[in-house]
Amino acid sequence: MSWFDAFYGGNGRGVNPNEPEKKGLARFFQILGRDFGQLIATNFLVCALVLPAALGVSLGIILLNFPLTLLAGLLGGMLAGIGLLVMADCALRSLCNDPSPWLPRMGQTISAKWKAALPVGAILITLLGALSFVWAFLFEVMESGQYPGSAILVFLGFDMLVLAVAGSLTVAALTAAPARETSLSSLLRTAGHMMLYAPGRALGGSAVIFAGVAVLILFFPISTLWAMLFGFWLPVLVAMQIFFPVLREIYDLDVEHAPSADDEEEGPLMTEKQKKARARANWWYYNWGLVAAAAVLVVAVIYVVHGLTTTIDPDYNVAVVTPDTLPDSSALQLQQVLESYGVDRNGDGAVVVSLNVYTWSADASLTDMNSQMAGATRMNTDLSNGDSGIWILADPQGFEEAYGALSEALGSDWAGQLIPWTDVPTLAGADLGSYDTSADGSTSQSVQELFADYQIAVLDSSDGLWDLLTHPAS
Q: Using N-to-C axis directions, what is the helix angle for 233-251 and 150-176, rounded to 10°?
């Protein structure tokens, strides 16, 4: 008998009708072992439904475009509302021991409650996007040296808390309520009733949802893999388990009990081989979800360990900001030139220069929109972290107007401290290849000709690379 069976005392493929209902962690792991497959499958569907809202709102925040953020939240939130409904419904059905197939059951839920889910999702995602936009705007303001009053931060934090509580309780009520009782006013009344009747459970479950959403937002897009595997079903299942006693009482929910093997009629005596086969089948029935979860965990750990043990940290970071798409071969050649003058600063046995090429221009019409957005996002991170010490710039004036990084590092006379590319023989004399200047590749230009008008800003010379480039060893 497996430890899972021994822990829960279950017999065969079911739950004994006379067995006391499990609670807490025992109940959670019982559901996890039994319904892990449908939880993961529903999680993938929810990811697909939430993705348009996540991308649209993120784009609005990155561009600091408030109308775009609201529009993306409003339209994308409708699909996200369907996703929240099916995820919460999946958790609720598991808590009720519903034995019906999960996919048809999901279709029935969507058919019955989609009209109510659309406005709920639109309102929640729009408000969440608006608050996230304000937080992002405040961070931009703080990076410029201005700090909002503590009262503003407390007020925004309180708004996030209220949204988390109201949103979590409303979605829980939408999931448990009969289709005829899913008007927005009715759901809000039920949410208020839950808060007054069981404030501890209401706040506890909402805190779990709040934590889950915070992880996804703060670590986006790194959290994408987490979202696909655990990001929705895990916090929703825990929160719904906390809400369940209140929902059960308000809506008189039935918890079904499947008959156990002991309740079935005695069949013909089984051989020892047949008994072992049935035992293996029962073990797999109860534990396949845990085996799958363990396999995912092992793969994730191997992935992280592999990344930590095989990644070579760069000795230097150099940035290139250009409106033209620099060919990979030319970027590699420039990187190799820089590495030929560097030294192994971290003692890992290799000289590595991380060449950070950002396709960006102050005149956005000169670049592809997607490349411009990606370049701006990565540049913000680079400047915030102070990664790149040397910056090779096509348009220093536009770069300074957009980011203010040159005057911050070099002072008001930053323009006089720029070094023309052609004044650095180690760079100007390197063979960097060429790039196509026409779509069909019929004409090309030397990368050195492209860089001839570029300027170099040394924002941080502490790593010594600039000295090595300008005073190479003979």
A: 60
